[in-house]
Amino acid sequence: MEDNKKIINILSFLKENPGSNARDIASGTNIQKEEINSLLYNKLQDKCKQDSKYRWYLADEKLPQEAALEQVQRTPLAKLSRYYLSCIEEDGGVEVSVFAQSKFDLDYKEVSNLPFSKEEIASLFNYSEVQKFIKSAKRDRSLSLYFGYPSTLGYARSKKGWSGYFLKPLFLFPIKFSGEGDNVELDFSFPILNWSAIKQFVDTGGQELVRELLLLEDELGIYEEKEQPELDDLVQRLKTIRPHWNWQEEIDPHNLPQEPKLSECDKEGIFNRGVVLQIKEEANFFTRGLEYELNQLTNLPEEKYKDTALGQWIYRDTKEEDIRNTNSLLEVFPGNLEQRESIQNALNRKLSVITGPPGTGKSQVVTNLLINTA
Question: Using CA atoms, how far apart are residues 127 and 114, in angstroms rounded to an integer?
Fold first, then answer.
């Protein structure tokens, strides 16, 4: 009966405030956010629907932004960004997996609850096993630390006869060192889809796998221009859009089971478990930053870039304009013939690229170009 009252309150609130996210609904109804999500993703599935930005509406209402989002994703810049993303992904995405069972120390620590507050994040770093991971990562910079949720188990058998399970979190969040390396931070701003986990549930590879990953990122709204979806919303949405995946446990981010331990499980699939893990990797955080920025460009409306240098390049609008007199150039650094030609071209064209091997004077060209432009 209590749930029925909450359902009525939620539906009434959405009728008056369509397009509210779960946190807004919780604030407006005085119901806990975890209860809001539990009802919206379960008992209210047929009565409510959600757009790509995690905003809720009654089922019979139109989603106002869907058409605009589709238009943005088809811009020339979006297509180009997706091409570059495909190149990066094809070259190798982030793949994180560790042994779920081992006679040695495990490379992961299962946690009792997810870190939604600063206090919970601090307690996450107080586990003795996690403290060991942190000390090891400070000594060995090739070690990377992640928080992962939910967790998947995948069965494997080697040619030498070994068989067992690998632990592969679906979403990864980097744990980083800041300042002089003494402060430890959990970065929730950039969720990473773990290729190793996704491959278990996608019967494809190569370019098709890349397309599936990009589609999944779009459906989850991971790379929207505004702030990222909260972890509990993110995972609940994933369960809704991929119900056919092998979900072994009910997803409840606010109630993680403690038994049996992941190291004692003997089934493949997705488990409602959070872990901190350490891996040795050559992964490049600059590449991950590039992926994030390319995804932001994918969602950039055409009117925001068409009149910029980027837009001129995309639309090949780089014709000569004869807008500046370059008969006499100011040279704070003496230049050779090629350098002077580069400056003259840059002053008279909408877009120029200055390139050359080390030591050929690119910095001098740019300095002289800036002086003459000023």
Answer: 13
CA distance 122 to 197: 27
CB-CB contact of 335 with 364 (8 Å): yes
Look at residue 70 in the predicted model and tell me its pLDDT.
45
Residue with tokens 């995948």: 154
Residue 114's nearest CA partner among 37, 45, 51, 42 is 37
pLDDT score, position 68 = 44
Length of the chain: 374
Q: Are 13 and 20 in contact (CB under 8 A)?
A: yes
Which pLDDT value is given to residue 297? 83
pLDDT of residue 9: 93
Omega before 257 within 30 of 0, i.e. cis: no
Output the pTM of the full model: 0.69
Contact 262, 199 (CB under 8 A): no
For residue 295, CA distances in Å to 24, 221, 236, 283, 290 come to 27, 10, 22, 19, 9
> Which ranges of the chain have pLDDT less than 50?
1, 67-72
How far apart, in whole angstroms, are the C-alpha atoms of residue 252 and residue 254?
A: 5
